[in-house]
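Q: I have 157 residues here and want to know how they pack in 3D. Can you give me a structure?
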Amino acid sequence: MPTIDLNSPTGPIRVSSDGDAVVGITWIEPGASLEPAIPDAVSRETAAQLSAYFDGRLTVFDLPIRYRGGSAFERAIWDAMRAIPWGETKTYGDLATLTDGVARAVGGACGRNPIPIVVPCHRVVGSDGRLVGFSGGAGVATKQWLLDFERGQARLF
């Protein structure tokens, strides 16, 4: 599978593609044994757009994505997250209403999002605005950093 790694303010990230679309973005654990990256055009473009995002030059990703796995409900949630604009948030309940689901199931779908940042699960918060989870990087600290960054208030952990 084509991959490329990049450093980000939230830690090292690996982008995976299937040759035609982005299929995964994951944070690389510090000290993890890494396989050599084998980039292709899709993974290189994704890395370039992520770099532009972290530089504050890109607010909307224009990438082909493909969800590998996931239920129809999860894919609907992932698509709904893509519609949340840069710097804004929606609650789990908001997404549940859009998809005829329940907030807890939305939370599960967010946690299984295979393409974070591009599919911005960090923009989904609890009903009272609390950050109740994030499965990438340093967890909630990474989610907080991404939201602060998009609001122009970024700080290091």
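Q: Anything worth noting?
A: The radius of gyration is 15 Å. The helical segments are 41-54, 72-82, 92-99, 103-111, 140-150.
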